[in-house]
Design a protein that fits this description.
The structure holds 2 protein chains of 2 kinds. By secondary structure, chain A is of the alpha/beta class. In chain A, 23% of the residues lie in helices and 25% in strands. The chains are: A alpha/beta, B mainly alpha.
Chain lengths: 262, 262
């Protein structure tokens, strides 16, 4: 499925954000198009997570505007399926897979008639699609990292989002599960726009259609672009034109992006 | 042993133990999974300021203490919330400040010879009918709130950020949770005293966390364990003529360590 560059889903215009007067993002412009598969990369502390939180409406920009499908992020939150980083989650928490997926269907307002049974059916359908239905009543503790990540995707899909937003989804997952995980994302990309934050260079899937390098400012590299190394974006101090990491994988082309100054 | 049941004070003690077990089972579960155990300790000790204030002003113990405990709990929670990395120090200071205020206020009350030990170590054998009614009302209140907002509490306890993205009013729910926690702590102070309240609040929930499949199961299990600890403690106390609250905690701690090693 090609990127539909006529339809902008997320539009960020001159966005600046600072924590305690320390500028994290400055004059950021970024458009995310329909059916894009965007990887957001950059050094730690470069503002990747802040960018994500701004899109989600968890933070408000000091300057500039953000629109998700033409609405403010707070109003548009159901268009976005969010898959957060797992490291902030209490792993001892007693909860079944199905109950986690059902969290995805919670609404800000209470309804007199509970939609819970209908939501349960929907959750079961989504779990089936993600090949997780046999785990529905299992405790989350007993699942592997890759399985847990698929559960979080199932939860994100409960609102029928247009965009899937993932924050470092492959951290702590073994490489075999990572391959499966990227296959799933590729499949989901047929119907969804995917935005994925990643700090791991080797983890960028070959299915990624565009890359945004974030380090206070944002540079967007679209599909067609191949020239200089992304490594310079990851490690701005080590101005080396050679890739320090040798990627060995079948059918996985080595991607190189145009140079820019951060 | 059976003949003990004919005494009013034993009957009151058992009913108080039942209510205490229910509210500790519910709120202890929320405190453990939300990592609010230290805050609970802070509330319990700062509540001594409320006890002092009630004695000084001549107010009924329960109402003065509940008001004071809720106020300090909300102050501690909001300061800690905005200052997460320093929250332990802030809670520690208010913990001590509350106790100091309590001691000074009691000292300043002319001609008052209060049995401090009963507040520090509880007085389950002198619980009055009015105390039982208040406990019953608070228990019902907590159960009703939980019935309405159970799924929201699960969501914010599991993954606060995701709940926020889904539009759940996380801050309001946290406030409700802190208020219910403060209510629970003040009522349980009557049963086991402010020094031991943390044990009855957290031990049953902590043991159950390992075995429960859901938060609801954890609450039910913790309630049953709480009842077992209280009844066994009371039997021990009656048989060997030792302090009731200390016996309850002794039983609970024994189970805690047995559970740790199996």
């Amino acid at each position: 499925m090609r990127v539909n560059s006529k339809n902008i889903l997320i539009q960020m215009k001159d966005v600046s954000f600072a924590y305690h007067k320390h500028a994290v993002l400055q004059d950021v412009c970024l458009n995310v198009f329909e059916k894009d598969y965007l990887a957001i990369i950059g050094p730690n502390g470069g503002g990747k997570t802040t960018l994500l939180k701004l899109i989600l409406g968890l933070l408000k920009p000091d300057k500039g505007s953000i629109y998700v499908k033409g609405q403010t992020p707070q109003k548009a939150s159901h268009f976005i399926g969010y898959v957060p980083q797992e490291r902030y989650i209490n792993r001892q928490f007693p909860i079944s897979v199905l109950d986690i997926v059902l969290i995805g269907s919670l609404l800000p307002r209470k309804h007199i008639f509970s939609q819970r049974n209908r939501n349960k059916q929907k959750a079961q359908t989504i779990l089936e699609q993600l090949r997780l239905s046999e785990y529905a009543h299992r405790n989350m503790r007993s699942l592997s990292g890759g399985q847990r990540q698929r559960v979080y995707i199932a939860r994100a899909l409960m609102t029928d989002p247009d965009i899937l937003l993932l924050d470092e989804p492959t951290t702590g997952i073994d490489s075999k599960s990572q391959v499966e995980f990227y296959q799933l994302l590729e499949h989901l990309n047929n119907s969804l726009t995917i935005v994925m934050v990643s700090h791991d260079m080797t983890a960028i899937s070959r299915h990624v259609k565009s890359v945004a390098c974030v380090n206070r400012s944002v540079y967007y590299h679209d599909q067609s672009e191949i020239s200089e190394s992304t490594i310079q974006c990851m490690y701005p101090d080590e101005m080396t034109n050679e890739c320090p990491i040798e990627l060995i994988a079948h059918g996985m082309p080595h991607r190189v992006l145009k140079n820019h100054d951060h | 042993m059976i003949e003990a049941l004919q005494y009013d004070f034993i009957q009151h003690a058992l009913i108080a133990a039942l209510f205490a077990s229910i509210i500790c089972g519910i709120m202890g579960t929320l405190a453990v999974v939300n990592r609010l155990v230290f805050l609970s300790g802070g509330i319990a000790h700062a509540a001594y300021g409320g006890i002092g204030l009630s004695i000084y002003m001549g107010w009924p113990f329960l109402f003065g203490t509940i008001g004071f405990a809720i106020a300090t709990a909300l102050i501690m929670a909001s300061i800690a919330f905005h200052n997460k990395e320093r929250s332990d120090a802030i809670i520690g200071v208010i913990w001590a400040l509350g106790m100091a205020c309590g001691i000074i206020l009691v000292d300043q009350t002319p001609g008052y010879q209060v049995d401090l030990m009963s507040y520090l170590f509880g007085s389950i054998l002198t619980v009055t009918k009015l105390d039982l009614i208040v406990m019953g009302v608070v228990t019902c209140f907590i159960i009703i709130v939980l019935r309405i907002f159970y799924h929201d509490f699960v969501a914010i306890s599991y993954d606060e950020e995701f709940a926020k993205v889904r539009g759940i009013n996380v801050n309001a729910l946290y406030c409700v949770m802190i208020i219910m926690l403060a209510l629970t702590i003040v009522l349980v102070i009557q049963v086991v005293g402010l020094i031991l309240v943390i044990a009855l609040l957290t031990i049953p929930a902590y043991i159950m966390e390992k075995y429960a499949k859901s938060l609801f199961q954890m609450m039910i299990g913790a309630t049953i364990l709480g009842c077992i600890f209280c009844v066994m403690g009371l039997i021990l106390s009656y048989s060997y003529d030792i302090s009731a609250s200390a016996s309850i905690i002794l039983v609970a701690s024994t189970f805690f360590f047995i559970n740790m090693f199996i």
